[in-house]
Write a structure and sequence with these properties.
This protein has helices at residues 3-28, 61-73, 108-121, 171-174, 183-186, 202-211, 231-238, 334-355; strands spanning 52-58, 79-81, 125-127, 131-135, 141-145, 148-157, 161-163, 179-180, 194-198, 217-221, 243-246, 250-257, 260-267, 274-278, 281-284, 288-290, 320-322. The radius of gyration is 25 Å and the shape is elongated. By secondary structure, the chain is of the alpha/beta class. It has two domains: 49-162 and 288-355, FAD/NAD(P)-binding domain; 165-284, FAD/NAD(P)-binding domain, CATH 3.50.50.60. Strands 1, 2, 3, 4, 5, 6 and 17 form a seven-stranded mixed sheet that branches. A five-stranded parallel sheet has the order 8-15-9-10-11, with helices on one face. It has a three-stranded antiparallel sheet with strand order 12-13-14, with no helix packed on it.
């Protein structure tokens, strides 16, 4: 064999060996240093760097499971803490008809199970535990779960936002059986039926107007006579022939039978007088609360607690990404949450390649 040919073969072998080592580094993230320094600050000392995960996903639902699917397929070996109530808000939705790929519709819990199984098939590890706190002040990040500490080079937060409920008597039994917090999700199930909308802001007026496409009558119930909604949103609802507005009314209790919701007992907060109103559907639109308290203010949020994106899906902390309803103040749909989970996974993968691997 000529010397030039031998040199070429040795060079090719060296290139293959380097590529293979890079592959192993990417898959197992072998890092012999105990102190990691990424962009800023002195790293946190961890006994074994093999105990540091590439990515920990906090939360589940469409955003979390999609992020898990994509990071698992990228061979990042993600770990997810799905929470005790894994699956998010869709676990309370009986039927989903507006998610692509389900021509006959699908139950919310069933969809969440399918998304989870698909992600687990590619290697996502899921633990149904709540995250108590995170520490992003040093690298790698520390995630505390039931008193145990876990470490990761990157985080994807998908904890969502929980709807604010009235918690009136009879409400828990009728969640998903007539009482909902999403007209866009469930309005079509109440064609030619009478429904209630509870609230006085833009969301309540918007949902009441939207429901007129399906319901025969919509009653907008508000505990005061002054609405927080913008003038245009209020007037649109007030002037609609299908909408009746009841002010100085609040739900005292819900009425139901074996088939589901039948109505509500409304109370006048001024004098305590009550009246019954018939309805087979009710939509509570008094707001949402993002689940971000466990972050301890380390990630920038807006005045309502929603996480703010700084660069694509990256938050104010490099290496911390967020997706789904914990960010989204506008759309709040399963399909948009799933799409954002995909974006966060891709962003996290690229960030790891550029800063850690």
């Amino acid at each position: 064999m000529a010397v030039s040919e031998l040199q070429c073969d040795m060079s090719c072998f060296a290139n293959i060996r380097v590529s293979f080592v890079q592959y192993l580094d990417r898959k197992f993230l072998r890092n012999e240093r105990d102190n990691v320094q990424v962009r800023r600050g002195v790293g946190r000392r961890v006994s074994q760097m093999s105990d540091v995960h590439n990515v920990i996903i906090i939360g589940s639902g469409p955003a979390g499971y999609t992020a898990g699917l994509y990071t698992a397929r990228a061979m990042l070996e993600p770990l997810m803490f799905a929470g005790y109530m894994s699956g998010g808000q869709l676990m309370l939705t009986s039927d989903i008809e507006n998610f692509p790929g389900y021509p006959e519709g699908i139950g919310g819990p069933e969809m969440m199970m399918q998304l989870r199984e698909q992600a687990e098939r590619f290697g996502l590890k899921v633990e149904d535990k709540n995250v108590e706190s995170v520490d992003t002040t040093s690298r790698p990040f520390k995630v505390t779960v039931e008193g145990e500490d876990f470490f990761a080079h990157s985080l994807i937060v998908c904890t969502g936002a929980e709807s604010i409920w009235l918690d009136a008597p009879g409400e828990a039994e009728q969640k998903g059986r007539g009482i909902s917090t999403c007209a866009t999700c469930d309005g079509a199930f109440f064609k030619e039926e009478e429904v209630l909308v509870i609230g006085g802001g833009d969301s309540a007026c918007e949902e009441a107007t939207f429901l007129t496409r399906f319901a025969s009558k919509v009653t907008l119930v508000h505990r005061r006579d002054v609405f927080r909604a913008s003038t245009i949103m209020y007037e649109r609802a007030a002037n609609h022939p299908k909408i009746e507005i009841k002010t100085f009314r609040q739900v005292k209790s819900w009425l139901s039978d074996e088939k589901g919701l039948t109505g509500a007992v409304l109370e006048d907060p001024r004098d305590g007088s009550t009246e019954e109103i018939a309805a087979t559907g009710a939509f509570i639109a008094i707001g949402h609360k993002p689940i971000t308290s466990f972050l301890g203010g380390q990630v920038e949020t807006d005045e309502n607690g929603y996480i703010i994106h700084k660069h694509h899906t990256m938050t104010s902390v490099d290496g911390v990404f967020a997706a789904g309803d914990v960010v989204d103040t506008r759309y709040k749909q399963a399909i948009t949450a799933a799409g954002m989970g995909c974006q966060a996974a891709i962003d996290a993968e690229k960030w790891l390649e550029e800063n850690v691997h």
